[in-house]
Amino acid sequence: MRYAVVIEKTETGYGAYAPDLPGLGVTGATIEEVRELISQGVAVYIRELQSHGEPIPKPGAVAEYAEIELVA
């Protein structure tokens, strides 16, 4: 399964979360660090749900970009 992940710049580095996995969020100093941490976090999150016999959320979030043309 593939889950959408949002990575945001913060005052001290970067943060990331997966909209389909409530409560899962990570922070780090670099984008590379946050990518690794969120990947690990998703795997742990899913394993924890499985170990408790809880349903695995189906990916549903969609990431899109809005392009705009700035007029000076």
What can you see in these coordinates?
The chain has 72 residues and is of the alpha+beta class. It has one domain: Double Stranded RNA Binding Domain (2-Layer Sandwich), CATH 3.30.160. The chain is built from one helix and three strands, in the order βββα. Strands 1-2-3 form a three-stranded antiparallel β-sheet, with helices on one face. The protein is flat and about 55 Å long. The N and C termini lie far apart (43 Å).
Q: What would you say about this model in short?
A:
By secondary structure, the protein is an alpha+beta fold. It has 1 helix and 3 strands, in the order βββα.
Structural features:
3-stranded antiparallel beta sheet; 72 residues; flat; alpha+beta
Number of domains: 1
Chain-averaged pLDDT: 96
Helix content: 25-40%
Compressed to H and E, one letter per element, the order equals EEEH
Query: What is the CATH class designation?
Result: Alpha Beta
At CATH level 2, the architecture is 2-Layer Sandwich
Total DSSP E strands: 3
For the biggest β-sheet, the strand order reads 1-2-3
Helix and strand content put the structural class at alpha+beta
The DSSP helix count reads 1
Biggest sheet: strands, sense, closure? Answer: 3 strands, antiparallel
Q: Could you tell me the CATH topology label.
A: Double Stranded RNA Binding Domain
Beta fraction of the residues? 15-25%
User: Mind telling me the C-alpha Rg?
Assistant: 15 Å
Please state the overall shape, judged from the principal axes of the Cα atoms: flat
Distance between the termini: 43 Å
- Stretches where pLDDT is under 50 for at least 5 consecutive residues are none
